[in-house]
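Weekly structure sync - notes
Attendees: PM, LS, DV (DV joined late)
Agenda: review two folding runs queued last week.

Item 1: First target. Sequence and structure tokens pasted below for the record.
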Amino acid sequence: MAEHFVQFRVEGQAVYGMMHLPEGKGKFPAVALCHGFTGNRIEAHRLFVKMARLLAANGIAALRFDFRGSGESEGDFEQVTVSGEIADALAALEFLRKQPEIDSSRVGLLGLSLGGCVATCTAARDGKVKALVLWAAVADLKGPFVERMAPEVRDLLNKQGWLDFGGWKVSKAFYEDAAKIEPLREALRYDGAVLIAHGANDPVVPIDHAHRYHAAFQCTKKLHIIPDADHTFARLNWEEEVMKVTLDWFKTWL
């Protein structure tokens, strides 16, 4: 297997990533990985590194990348919006399809948490994503991000134009943009094969988000609930299970 750093540009800013290529000569199927809110291309307990290497060991190339304003990519977090991340993911697919080792007709997407919402919208808009996997994906941005905001927090956001989210500067533009994104509506347009994996004890994105996605998708679909698991599958047995079902899905549909 070979791993090398890559970069591509979106709206003049560099997006940095890591490409994982299987042994041998391509053309390989490939998967782009979309990280979560305030995450990066490594993700919690190196989850994306492990998943990408597992894919590559099984003949599927993988591209892990940092959204602009996250990880090492250019831009500031204050500029991050969901629409901007969708633009980055569409550019990642375009970059992948241009690589000489990649079979451009066999490309998939994997998204974790907010990255699952981004991956859903990206797959629907791109129109050529053969297989999609959602991990603990956010199905509704209005509820958690917009409507449940305490009045005093909303006043502060309106007054200063941003909120301090554990050291991350989240802009008013992020919330305004999030209110317009409807992943469940976009899911209706996706016609590939989708696997929805979720931990039964996810304290961040409740499990009903998984059920809502499963109901919304009208294509080939599978719901996989991992008993007791948390938001990022942060136990070795949970991690192993989510990675195995994901690998099986991509092997089947790419």
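Item 2: Second target, run right after the first with the same settings.
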Amino acid sequence: MNKTALLRAIIAELENELRRQQAANQQASAGATDGEARAETKWDTCGLESSYLARGHALQFKALAADLDELRTFMIPVFTGLPIGVGALVEVEMDKEKMLCFLLACAGGVELCAEGRNVTVITPSSPLGAALLNKKQGEKFSFRKGSVGKILSVS
């Protein structure tokens, strides 16, 4: 599987999410400053709640933008014969099910379909990412109590 194309697809997915975050932030900000949102009683907190929501969207936007900056400059290494690290595409088998994971420093949880296969982005701080880190193809790993998997391929 072409990891460069996969990284581009992940970046495109995050760019779409960034646009959604920006639109949500603008909507919440507009709601917070709208004349209709002004409190009519001391119990009326609609405008205040909208401002909290706008702040939350702004923080998520900032974090997502930082992730995008990091991924846009990321140089994908080749892991043939080397221990798993950030940038590795790893196929694992757990509980008789195969899973394809792309280990990146950020964007954990992004799922997409590439070349007819489902790929999940994991990070070194995730339980699965931590279990795979520094392992090699053919090794076994465990990441949940009693759950054992095997590394089928690393690229």
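Discussion on item 2: The chain has three helices and six strands.
Action: LS to circulate a short write-up before next sync.
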